[in-house]
Amino acid sequence: MWRQYQNPVFASHYPYIGVSTAYDIRVRPNHFALDYRRIKTVFRHDDPIWSKMLPPFGKACRCSILAFAADELETRGLTVGHGEDWYGKEVEVEMPALGQRVKVHVLPDSQLVKIDSSFAKFLRTRRPESVSDVFWREYRRSRDPKLAQNMVAYAENIIQQALKCKEEDKYAHAFGLRILGGLAEFSGETGKAIECYEKAISLNPQIGIKRKLAQLKKRKAD
């Protein structure tokens, strides 16, 4: 498809390209942030940014690109933007399928791409440890506080979104809450961590965090 869009004859009739997501509950927020229907923006077919952000953006990514003719822009209420103005930009995205607003980067950097790929693994295996493993490994490598903050928010979004896909699976929910508790603990949000751990134990008493929960409660009391 991309080769067709770059064909000089085709591009002369359809010179503008937009990113299109599946627009459902499985769409990752950082991908939805660039959906042409959300941002009302498309980019020229020869915009240099396509060398960085051509779909798919990660494993199991269902994003695609659509070509538009010049006369379609006004009809659809679209404007022509510059990719560099959007790539890596932090934006607040309202996710219709999730009923919540989240802050994300339009596209993840190299470390977040690795976390991004674990989303698909979670949907297959029901276990979000893959997200946690990648998160901790990448943080230990970089020790960058800003990156860590971005990764925490991103990992939380992935877990919460994945759990929405498995509302009836208590086992997956328990492990998801365990990871969310760990991320909250890492961020210094003890109260939030305790709440997540308590909910996880209520769903799966054998999840193995009772001692950790007791330690957190004692630390908070002190």
Topology:
Layout: H1 2-5, H2 8-13, E1 16-20, H3 29-32, H4 36-39, E2 41-44, H5 50-53, E3 64-68, H6 70-76, E4 79-81, E5 90-95, E6 100-105, H7 110-125, H8 129-142, H9 145-164, H10 170-186, H11 190-203, H12 210-221
Parallel strand pairs: 2-4
Antiparallel strand pairs: 1-2, 1-3, 5-6
Helix pairs in contact: 7-8, 7-9, 8-9, 9-10, 10-11, 11-12
Descriptive notes:
- With 222 residues, the chain is an alpha+beta fold.
- Helices cover 55% and strands 13% of the residues.
- The chain contains twelve helices and six strands.
- The protein has helices spanning 2-5, 8-13, 29-32, 36-39, 50-53, 70-76, 110-125, 129-142, 145-164, 170-186, 190-203, 210-221, and strands spanning 16-20, 41-44, 64-68, 79-81, 90-95, 100-105.
- Strands 3-1-2-4 form a four-stranded mixed sheet. A two-stranded antiparallel sheet has the order 5-6.
- A hairpin with a 4-residue loop joins strand 5 (90-95) and strand 6.
- Helix 8 runs antiparallel to helix 9 (145-164), helix 9 packs antiparallel against helix 10 and helix 10 (170-186) packs antiparallel against helix 11 (190-203).
- The chain starts with a helix and ends with a helix.
- Mean pLDDT is 76; it is low at 108-120.
Given helix and strand content, the structural type is: alpha+beta
Helix content: 40-55%
**Using DSSP, what is the number of strands?**
6
- The chain-level mean pLDDT equals 76
Strand numbers in spatial order across the main sheet: 3-1-2-4
Low-confidence stretches: 108-120
Q: Total number of helical segments? A: 12
Q: Strand share of the residues? A: 5-15%
Strand/helix succession:
HHEHHEHEHEEEHHHHHH
How does the overall form come out from the CA principal axes?
elongated
Biggest sheet features = 4 strands, mixed
Query: For this entry, what is the oligomeric state of its chains?
Result: single chain
| CA-atom Rg in angstroms | 20 Å
Task: State the separation between the terminal residues, measured CA to CA.
Answer: 61 Å
